[in-house]
Structure prediction request, 209 residues.
Amino acid sequence: MELAILKQTGEDTGRKVTLSEEIFSVEPNDHAIYLDVKQYLANKRQGTHKSKERAEISGSTKKIKKQKGTGGARAGSIKSPVFRGGGRVFGPKPRDYSFKLNKKLKQLARKSALSYKAKDNSLVILEDLVFDAPRTKDYIKLLSNLSLSDKKTLLVVGENNQNVYLSSRNLQKAKVRNVNDLNTYELLDADSLVFCEGALSKLETLLSK
Prediction:
C-alpha cells in the first residue's frame, strides 16, 4: 500500500511511501484488541475506593436490646450493617486493577488497529514537522491544511517535539504521541492517524521485535 507524503501546507511533496504489509495489512484480531484496550483502561483506574466495615466505624458495641421476647429480630451492636449508620457488608476495598499481557499479543493488537485504520483510509503521512515555537494557531492551521479540523486526530512523531506537543495541548480533539508511546486505545479512538515520515521507520522496528 502506497501513500503520498504531504507537506505542512497540505500539498503533495511528490514522494510516496510504501507501508509495511506486516503492520498495516494484517488480519485484525478483535480479541487481542479487546484485551489490550481492557488493560489500558484498567491501568488508568486508581483503585482507591473504600468503605468502612462494622469494625472500622465509631459507635457503641453494647447490645441494644435483649436477645428474646421483643417480637423482633435479634440485634447486637448499633454498628451492625442492618442499622442506619452501621458498617457496610462486603464494601469496596483498595485494589490494583492492572494485569499483565504478553508482548506479542500487545503487538498484534496495535497491528490490528493500524490495519483497520489503513483499510478505512484514515492514514495521513506528513513530512517531519518543525515548529519554531509552541503556538496553538500553527497547529490549527496544520489541521486545516490537511482537512482534519473537525476530526479527532492522533499525530505520531518519531522524536519528542516539545513545540508540537505544546501547540496541540489546548485542542480537545488533537493528540500528539511519540511512536514509542503508541497504544491500541488511542489508535482506535482517533478518526485519523497522522504519521510523521520519521515515525514510520521507527514503527516498523518497534513492531518487528
